[in-house]
Amino acid sequence: MTVPAPAQGVFISFEGVDGVGKTTQLQRLSRTLDRLGYRVVVTREPGATPLGAALRELLLDPERAISDRTEALLYAADRADHVETVIRPALHQGSVVLTDRYIDSSVAYQGAGRGLGAAVRRLSAWATDGLIPQVTILLDADPAALAERLRVARGTLDRMESERLDFHRRVRAEFLSLARAEPTRFVVLDALTDEETLARQISSAVAPYLPGGFPFGGGGLR
Ligand code: TYD
Known about the structure:
By secondary structure, the chain is α/β, with parallel strands linked by helices. Helices cover 50% and strands 12% of the residues. The site of thymidine-5'-diphosphate has 14 residues, from helix 4.
């Protein structure tokens, strides 16, 4: 009987309300790690797999009405496929996996935003067979400060982005409460800090988790 190899890689998630700049920072970290010679896999939820891309279209279509429980199940289905076909295989190969959103997004958006509560975490834990990131970078900002930025950047808003401000405030509050409950996994950073400084803060936060410790000398990552 073959026993699956233990995960060797490093699993890092980026979280935050819509418009905090996760994607920009994730790309920057990916380039930095790439330059340092790490094998990096950049991925996201929802929509990283072919099945996920179809689910993402359903989930974000502003014309489509979706019940809260259905929404939670569709995000969980996307996550199950993502973990099974992308994240676990990459970790087994020793990659550093950077995901734009993961379980905490479901707990914050469906659990707190939609008011579905603790069942959402159990659903996601089942969908992923318990896979949790080693580090979660939470980029935090008041959704009111981001709303205008989002509108200007996007032109139109998707189904989730069009939710009211109080929905996004509940989501933000839940992210912060998750971070307080798990202070060793979460690193909370002010999303309104300038891009360069934030990139340095993120690099320093993830450095201790990388194989080889601090292979980049006293100055740390850039
Ligand atoms: P995201 O890809 O971050 O948005 P964008 O590409 O527009 O920056 O996420 C899409 C939306 O899905 C976002 O509003 C958050 C929401 N979401 C949930 O509600 N639950 C979840 O589990 C996930 C992963 C995302």
